[in-house]
Amino acid sequence: MLVFLLIGWHGWPGAPNACVLAGDCYCEAPRPGLIAQPANTWSCLAGVIVGLLIAWDTGRRHHTPRAPFSSLMESDRFYAGLFALVVTYSGVAALFFHASLTNWGGQA
Question: What pLDDT, in 10s, does the model give residues 56-85?
């Protein structure tokens, strides 16, 4: 969050996303200030929280050798951990995009 705030206070450097130039930035109109799309930005925290909950659950769960008809998510920490990482990263990347509406935020 500190990195998020520091980049925001420096004006979200970088070229604006094409949606800003076209005037069609998804469901929330861009606003002046630190966060361009506040509702979209803060709702992205749900993805971050869910990803962290998946990681926590993966860490506390006792993984057993794979039984027939079981999921790799149940039997192997690698897949569950990778899933947690992807979900968390998606939330963080979306948070940066909706806050900044920059090209680098969209690429993240």
Answer: 988 887 666 666 767 777 777 888 899 999
Render pLDDT for 9-27 as a digit per residue (tens, 0 to 9): 888 888 888 888 888 877 7
- Residue 88's alpha-carbon distances to 2, 18, 31, 54, 97, in angstroms, are 17, 25, 26, 9, 14
Q: Kindly report the pTM of this predicted structure.
A: 0.79
Enter the tokens of residue 69: 């008809």
Place of tokens 């604006």: 16
Local structure of residue 15 (DSSP, 8 states)? P
Q: Is 94 within 8 Å of 43 (Cβ atoms)?
A: no
Helix H segments across the chain? 2-9, 18-22, 38-43, 45-60, 72-75, 77-100, 103-107
Q: Would you say 91 and 27 are in contact if contact means Cβ atoms under 8 Å apart?
A: no
Closest CA to 103 of 36, 16, 40, 26: 16
